[in-house]
Amino acid sequence: MTSRPAVRVHPAWGMLALVLLGLLTAQGTRIAFGAFVPAWQDDLDVSRGTISLVGTASFVIYGLTQPLVGRLSDRYGARAVLSAGVVVAGLGLVASSQAPDVAWLAVLYGLLASLGFSAASGVTAGLVVSQWFTTRRGVAFSFVESGFGAGQFVFVPLSLALIDAYGWSTTLAVEGAALMLVVGPLIAVLLRSAPAEKGLEPYGGPAPAPAGEEPAGGGGAGRRVLRSPVLWALVAPFFVCGVTTTGLIDTHLVPLAHDHGNSTALTGTTVSLLAAANITGILASGPLSDRYNCARILAVLYGVRTLSLILLAMAPHGGWLVAFAVVFGLVDFATVTPTHLIATRHFPPAALGLVFGFLSMGHQLGSAVGSYVPGLLHDLTGSYTTTLIGCSAALFGATLVCLAVLPARSVAPTAAETPEPASPVN
């Protein structure tokens, strides 16, 4: 009786797991910022608005440094930048645990930790995926993006529990030490930026040349990228995405719900459902983006998000609030995978770090605007209605950009054009 050969899992999936670990921990601690706000407000004796400015500064630093992170990753490899980012983020959190006042908190968290968060971001993770996967890229991107949602699930309640038991300073120190001493070194030792470093081909075999650009390296590729209308047709909707997701909803959904008399229990249920639907939408976006036209997928996602904010403006209470959470969650971060896939199929590999950097910068600057401006308009008008109408209009504009400007043929290579996944070699 002949024995069947053992099925070996391609190392690309192990690299994906390491990247997911880095994002889950680094971005999870970043997303948990809100859990620390009440404790900082009490201990540092400052207003909530002042503490919020630290968060806004963090978004800005994170966003403005993303193109630099992309270029450094293009030059030195995603492994070096990602692992260094996790370590620096951990160092910033440990240092922030000793901040004596809000000014030092702004420097240690808003600047130092945020530089680490910027390096340990979707830019470096996306480069690893683009190098290690030729087929199933959409699925791989969706798993990477799910790290943000999983980090929210893990670190927000964990931080709240630790703060309640041990205080904010100890919580920051413990979370920072885990990043600095465990996760960062683990990624540095085990991750590889590209399969060639292990004598392998990517999962799916060698990648075909991008459809929209001639392969080129160095500054020539970068200059052509910056002149490409496709880049800015991706960045502009992604800016609106940041305004309406991380900025508006993640920051203001809870106070908006309370403004309309919703109970704490219903508000908590709404946030939990939104997070669960978010992860579902992210994971579903991967196989859909691998199979269908990504530009049209983006148009549908932004269009549905437009309608969901109109629903929130009209009926921000009771069952309608729950319905909003489910619908908005499904199309929340689901935009990331098709956006990145269009980029990998259109631009040369030598410039992908720069492309991902500009995309992330647009999203983070949008998040900063979406975090600050709705609060300002609320102070002026007494409601979020103006913000919701304005954001709906911006999302409708993003929908039109996706249909009018993005490349019509943004689908994956066919099975006939792409070889089967390569087996690992020793």
Description:
The protein has helices at residues 11-31, 33-44, 48-64, 66-76, 78-96, 102-119, 122-132, 137-166, 168-190, 218-227, 229-259, 264-291, 294-314, 318-330, 336-346, 352-381, 385-404. With 426 residues, it is mainly alpha-helical. α3 (48-64) packs parallel to α6 and α12 (264-291) packs parallel to α15. The two termini are 27 Å apart.
Order of helices and strands: HHHHHHHHHHHHHHHHH
What's the N-to-C terminus distance?
27 Å
Q: What structural class results from the helix and strand content? A: mainly alpha
Sheet-strand content, in percent, reads: under 5%
Uncertain segments: 212-218, 410-426
Radius of gyration in whole Å, from Cα?
Answer: 21 Å
Give the tally of β-strands: 0
Q: Helical segment tally?
A: 17
Could you say which overall geometry the principal axes of the C-alpha atoms support?
globular
Q: What's the overall average pLDDT, rounded?
A: 83
Question: What labels would you give this structure?
Answer:
single chain, 426 residues, mainly alpha, disordered C terminus
